[in-house]
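Expect chain and fold; thus:
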Amino acid sequence: MPPWCNFLLLIKTSLIGSASTSTCPISLIPQSYSSYSRLADPADVPQRFSVLVRALTAELNANLQKVLHSLTPIQAAVIRVMAAMGEDYAPFESPTMDMYATAMMQAGIEGKARSIEVPAVQQALIALQEKKLVWKASRGVYAVDEQVIVDLLEEAGLLQGLK
C-alpha cells in the first residue's frame, strides 16, 4: 500500500471512526455525506487534522532516522559531508575527501578503516541513491534528496565540525 494510502486511512479512522484495511484509496473516501454524521464536532476537524499530520511526520522522521542509522560508516560520512557542504559539495576533491576522514573519525572509526578512496566514495554515492537519500543531477553533481534529511542530521549534531 502506498504511504499516502496509510495517511488517508489514518485520517478516515480518526475523523470518522471507521476504516477498512483495503489497499485501494478510493474506498477510504466515504460514499455519502451521511458518513460524516459520526463526527463529534466539525469545528474540531482542523485541529484533529493538524495532530494527525504531526503524528505522521514524526513517524516518517523516525523511519528516516532508522535508515540513516543503518548506513555503513562510509555512506554515513558521505551523506554527512554532503549535507554540511550543501551546494559546494564536490565529492572527489581533496578537501572533501579530508572531510570524509574527519566524519569517519568523529564516528569513532580508527586507523586504516578511516582511509577513504575515490572508488569507496563512488560506491557510497550509488548506495545512497538506491536508498533514495541522494540524487545525482549530472556527472559529479550530487545533492541530498530532501531538506528533512539535512534537518535530522543537524538536530542529531552530526554536522558539527564539518561545516
Observations:
- The first strand starts at residue 134 and ends at 138.
- The chain is about 55% helix and 5% strand.
- Residues 3-63 form one domain.
